[in-house]
Amino acid sequence: MNEVAKVGMTLNYVLDSSCSKYRDTPAIGMAMEDPLTYGAFHERIIALAARFLREGVKKGDHIAILAENSHNWAIAYMAIVRLGAIAVPILPDLPESDVHHILGEMQVSALFTTQKQIEKIYELRTVMTCPVITLDDYAAEIGVLPVITISGYLREALTVLRDSPEPPVFPEVVEDDLASILYTSGTSGYSKAVMLSHKNLTANAYAAAGLKAIPPGSVWLSILPMSHTYEFTCGFILPVLCGGRIAYAGKSPTPAILQKLCQHEKPYAIFAVPLVLEKIYKKRVLPQIEKSPVLGLLCKIGLTRRLIYRKIGAKLCAFFGGNLQLMGVGGAALNPEVEMFLHESRFPYLVGYGMTESAPLIAGGPAGDTTITVGSTGKPIPGVQVKIVGPDPATGVGEITVCGPSVMRGYYNDTEATQAVLTTDGWLSTGDLGVFDKEGNLHVRGRSKNVIVLASGENVYPEAIEHKINTYTWVVESLVLENNGQVEAWIYPDYEFIDEQTSGESRIDRRAYIENLLDTMRVELNEKLSKSSRLAKVFERREPFIKTATHKIKRYLYNGTAMVG
User: Fold this and answer.
1) CATH number assigned to the domain comprising residue 90
2) 100, 108, 330, 353: which has the fewest Cβ within 10 Å?
3) 402 shares a domain with 533
């Protein structure tokens, strides 16, 4: 029984089981293109893994994937873990210096990449003696770095597999073997290499599968990078586990492209970061309400507001293809005003909370639970324990700590950092502050490192103020910081909106218009904030903030420094 359980908790078992049950069912492919069936997907993985084995790749070797989403990305990853090697997914948005650091530290046996990413490794050619395989079949015209196309590589591997009288024999892979080493791109600087085992990832996916009944054949539109655990676990392993079909958008789509893809694919599920829904809310929902004084007035009354929101919500579901049953929202905090709209419009969203170190889901759902409070992240997922450490006597807010089968093995080659967040009995310190409500829902207040402690002793959560700022139609994003004992905000405005409002006016008039917006907002917000946490100053920032893969602002780049507007 124990051996069966161990096998069942590997990625290889999940794949084999699903491919056996759903062999002729569509499995994976690019959006608006013909997908591979589960049988064809499985055969390519086995063929590629067998070729790796013949070419000397061993259990425990590191193989990197630096590429945008595609079915070939998934084939490469699953072939790596099939023989017990360790996949090193690299976020495609990382700068060249970070890519060099990761590849240097990992000492990879092979690298999968694409034309868009390959320039990042040209300077490494003296040390990049491993095979470089292009997942988009890019063949370099100038021989800066020799590459192998995935189509040719796979074609030869499939020929050998089909001509072999016996199936390939791979090394034994068990649940505690490492599957991935992922470099975080957190908001607090210093990137760490998170070691996740097969069990970490599969346990999280099995738990996620219990949050909502998912029918086989459901279509999952993938718009987030697979190199992030959020999309990998929830948008890849989960649908494979349930016999779904994954359609890759190819890149982060604009709202217009997203609508086109959804009309074609009619997805059952999409996983998104809050920014996607917040943009749609600001660009497509708010304008409908604000352009009509009568509608705006009716939206101040509970019953009529809900009726209006439901009509808008139906249009929003139509925008996503008319078949959406699950919009997973995670990776960053969802704006409370946007969530209230989603809730009252009966839009099928589900908020989740997690981190790379927990593979990633910690809390979320379950779907249909009427006790989930708006503004919370729902209940801890099955099999995961959550404990609040050092709660404030007045508020109950303390550090969120987590224990369960999806908690990481530790940080690669960094015992000190591992011991700082992971206890000997397996409890992970998240660095986030939170509190449980009486219904057992987890409310995340923000990062402990971000809390502003004022001279009065009051704790100010900058994220809460930023949410209020970001509800303004003309605000794209904001950052609240402490400066000499005062709370200040930096605003990156929506310059398209400002251009529309100041069309034909002089630069001086345009500048005065922006200054008036900033000052009016500061006055309005300060009426809603406690006296000690009011905004002393509000500044315009003229370029976007630098963000992580899940669109959270990298605060460490701005704390304690003067920003140029």
Assistant:
1) 3.40.50.12780
2) 100
3) no
Distance CA 373, CA 279 (A): 23
pTM, rounded to two decimals? 0.89
CB distance 90 to 73 below 8 Å: no
Looking at the fold, whether 520 and 411 belong to one and the same domain comes out as no
pLDDT of 479 above 90? yes
Residues 439, 535 within the same domain: no
Asked whether 202 and 9 are in contact (CB, 8 A), the reply is yes
Contact 189, 195 (CB under 8 A): no
Q: Which two tokens stand for residue 189?
A: 């600087």
Q: What pLDDT shows up at residue 2?
A: 41
* Cα(534)–Cα(439) distance, integer angstroms: 32
Kindly report the CATH number assigned to the domain that includes residue 439. Answer: 2.30.38.10
Q: What are phi and psi of 135, to 5 degrees?
A: -75, -15
316-340 pLDDT per residue, tens: 999 999 999 999 999 888 999 999 9
What whole-number distance in Å separates Cα of residue 392 and Cα of residue 397? Answer: 5
Cα–Cα nearest to 366, from 357, 375, 377, 355: 377
220 has which bridge partners?
Answer: 246, 269
Greatest mean pLDDT among 3-12, 314-323, 544-553: 314-323
Question: Do residues 61 and 157 share a domain?
Answer: yes
Could you tell me if 415 and 404 lie in one domain?
yes
The distance of Cα 468 from the centroid of its chain, to the nearest Å, equals: 23
Q: Please give the structure tokens belonging to residue 128.
A: 């990049």
**Three-state helix/strand/coil letters over 169-215:** CCCCCCCCCEEEEEECCCCCCCCCEEEEEHHHHHHHHHHHHCCCCCC
Q: Which residues span the domain enclosing 442?
A: 376-450
Residue 122 covered by a domain: yes
| 442-455 pLDDT, tens digit each | 999 988 888 888 77
The per-residue pLDDT for range 372-416, each reduced to its tens digit, is: 999 999 999 999 999 999 999 999 999 999 999 999 999 999 999
Between the alpha carbon of residue 408 and those of residues 8, 201, 382, 426, 549, the distances in Å are 18, 9, 17, 9, 20
Q: How far apart are the first and last CA of the chain?
A: 63
C-alpha–C-alpha distance, residues 207 and 61, integer Å: 29
The closest of 197, 194, 259, 247 to 217, measured between CA atoms, is 247
Q: How many domains does the chain have?
A: 3
By the 8 A CB rule, do 348 and 317 touch?
yes
Same domain, yes or no: 72 and 174: yes
- Say which CATH number the domain at 511 has: 3.30.300.30
Q: What is the largest CA-CA distance in the chain?
A: 79
Q: If DSSP codes are grouped into helix, strand and coil, which group holds residue 227?
A: coil
Residue 371: per-residue pLDDT: 97
